[in-house]
Amino acid sequence: MSSRRKGKMNETLNTALTASQRTDLVKPELIYIKSQIELLRLDDSGRKDSEVLEQNAVNIGQSSALIAEFESSLTHSVPPLSQATLNIPALPPEYLQVDLHESLNQEESQASVTSVDPVFQVPISKAVQLTTNDAIKTTLLVELDISKTDFFYQPGDAFNVICPNSDSEVQSLLQRLQLIDQREHHVLLKIKADTKKKGAALPQHVPKRCSLQFILTWCLEIRAVPRKAFLRALVDYTSDGAEKRRLQELCSKQGAADYNRFVRDACASLLDLLLAFPSCQPPLSLLLEHLPKLQPRPYSCASSSLSHPGKLHFVFNIVEFLSSDTSVVLRRGVCTGWLATLVESILQPNMRASHADGGKALAPEIPISPRITNSFHLPDDPSAPVIMVGPGTGIAPFIGFLQHREKLQEQHPDGHFGVMWLFFGCRHQDRDYLFREELRHFHKHRILTHLKVSFSRDAPVGEEEAPVKYVQDSIRLHSKQVARLLLYENGYIYVCGDAKNMAREVNDTLVEIISREVGVDKLEAMKTLATLKEEKRYLQDIWS
């Protein structure tokens, strides 16, 4: 028998043996429970339907509870982890001493939660829903009135929105920590005299002379996913043995997969953990040591001050995701959820967003701050060709570009302006084609020379050829023109949007195009693209 046939036979035997071993590993109780659930599907003709349904409901409930014992969850583990000897990280040394004092009603300002950047309180003057109600994501355009401030911007700039945590989550956290009656007390921090932490320092993002409620609302990222060091610290404040063991598992080397599945990937917050482990009673000092700073959220300017003097537009999707403890309740993003609630009373339905009437600012003011100037701006030479790639809300800065270019062409009718290409993409043409009317206007008046739109979820109609699905497919379809503009006409390409998928795919497509059109290998094409970046002719405004 040849060695190849011998190896094949051994492989077959090993596979069969492995399958047999797997069957042997399944607990008999679990097999029995699952078989009972299957039997419940069979009709019992000798009993009334109502009796069968009632008994089935009881049996299913009992069986589901038993099955849960054999499935892992945030609070429950199964073998081999539940029986494993654990390698637990060292306990992080505590270093903060926290005292709560009754406040003297001192005024608190959001300005104290940021760094050196100036903070502007600006009213919301308009809000428009850009998507239809049946779109997968809801996209809003918000207009801010900056006419009475010293806030200035140019198309391509971004700015920060300083947002608070959800009030209901803050109150729930205070309640769980048994600090609800002390929420207005001022927090005083000191370094513990006997701390073993080297270089211990007071957290800079916790301002002095502010109330506990203010700090939890404006200063700490209470929605942050707790790190393993935080879980390790929580272990020592957990009294129930089973809960203590589970927290040890989640921060251990052996429990890495469970941590990733039930904490990191589920976006579990500190509050989620405290509600799941009721015997855990951490002191306030532990939260202040481990919770990171509540970061301002950056947004791209989606307007031009030439077209909208005294106004600033920005666009965002309302972020919604499943909470960690249920598959039903949706949790909104910290900032987008807050903004969506703020504008509910003035929200206008989908219309031509750039020209919808604003009216008076009925919504509260929001704090914003400028971001460090970047290079994501139109070329100094208006005759240079421009290629814009921005699917979804990535189109935001390009609306500002186009508004700006339109005004410049009105002011300089005899000027020489380069071509402008836009590659835009969304899911459905009739649901989330953002700024459709504006783009058609720019295209009709030759501000936008080429408009290429792709719809990833729309099926071909009739016998027509399948359309391109993504912006990178559309770029590939026009590879000769793209290569000519970038390599021989000193053009600029701007990419805005998702970094993980879209921006990477677009980059790979550009490498492919340069390699094919110029006739060089992939490495040389990558060097050419790197040169474009160095020359600030390949610019990205991307986020993860």
From TrEMBL:
Q: What Gene Ontology terms describe what this protein does at the molecular function level?
A: [methionine synthase] reductase (NADPH) activity; flavin adenine dinucleotide binding; FMN binding; methyltransferase activity
Domain FAD-binding FR-type, residue spans? 117-379
Gene Ontology annotations for the cellular component aspect, listed alphabetically: cytosol
| Keyword terms | FAD, Flavoprotein, FMN, Methyltransferase, NADP, Oxidoreductase, Transferase
E.C. numbers = 1.16.1.8
Annotated signal peptide: none
- Cofactor(s) listed: FAD; FMN
Gene Ontology BP terms: homocysteine metabolic process; methionine biosynthetic process; methylation
**Keyword RNA-binding attributed:** no
What is the name listed in the Swiss-Prot or TrEMBL entry for this protein?
Answer: Methionine synthase reductase
